[in-house]
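note to self: the first set is below, dont mix up w the second
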Amino acid sequence: MAHVGPGLALSLIHPYVWGWIRKGNRMEHLTTAQAAFVVDAPLDTFKKVVERAPIKPQLVKRGGRNIRQFGQAELVFLHAYDELKQALTPKSQSEFYEALRSSLKRGHAKEVVFGKQRYDIGQHLVFVERKLKELDKLTAQIDLSGKEPLIRGTQIEAHRIAALLDAGATVKDVLRDYPSLKEQQVVSAGVYAEAHPKAGRPYPKQTAKAAMRAADLSALDD
């Protein structure tokens, strides 16, 4: 998982993002897909790491299924996991995780003390905060009021645009076929879909206009 270089100043974690919203004295947490985005890991890889790591995500029942939800301690631990595997035994990793949870609850966030060891988590907090802010900014671009997430102010599905980007289209390519969109809207659709993968049938990986252009070029080659 990606790490931020040393020397960055510590700042407060931004608490108001999708799924991580304060309700009274209770803090809602991030879904698995959101957490994978925040720690900058592919979803499949992230799920495997979660199975191995000594963390305790909350389990919430939804639709008859237990859904994992990740809080601040889990996000920081998982972003630091590559380092922790090299530096600590599995037992020490568990001790660190429990100390991390306790430290964050008390507001002593920059350094975690467990046993005779100390671990500076400042760079990981900064990285997690930056990714949380990326998610936060998406709320201004994505309309979640209907059945499908739409790019705000349009009837264009966020996952439809993301499917084009996933297939290799550039932002410029997408704007060519969707001239009413702005660059930030296209980027936001891609980031949103990365954090919230689409369930069910995927959208086409090419627009009709792009397919027609490709067909015309093929005809010229004949």
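second set (the one i keep forgetting abt)
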Amino acid sequence: MGLRSRIPLSCYILLTGEDLLAIAADQPFRFPATFTFVVRAFSVLDGIGKGLDPRFDITEIAKPYALELLRFREAGVEVLLKDLQRRWDRQSRAFYNLFRQADRVEKLAEIIQQLEQGDLKLRVRTLESERAFQRVAAVQKTLGAAVAVGSLMNLATILYLNSIRVPAIAAFVICAFFSFQVLIGIVKVKKLDQQERLITGTA
């Protein structure tokens, strides 16, 4: 133990790897064929998760399930009793729902009838369409502000050249306000485009 404490970590890992290779050479073993597919699935999930969020860690997600498997092996009778309790609860709910099934079918038939008669309407949200409408609204608002900037700039210039100073200054001030709105609209449209690229994976 004292000798190992003096060995650097990299050398210790290298020695451990050589020991494992020696053991594998003496006693070869094979992984099941399905093991490679499981490893590939985990690597794909880990890659997708890290692409969406660099802080993604699949080991933290898998830890509760691994602990549950370990407890299942260690606890024995306790886990078996909990499993029996869950099965009994499911059977109790199934027996209870057996007598309420007729009422639920009748209620479902009433809902379908209301849909057919037009008394009840369903609203389905389409996130892609909502994002597209949001971008269109931002673009239209920006274009409207840009048109206002051009019109006010022309008006202010004409008034200033005709020595009508006060209305010209007011037009310039309003033009500056709409110019600021145009800048805000351009930034908002760029943010919406960036968000859409992140969602669709084309960033």
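remember for set 2: The chain has a mean pLDDT of 77.
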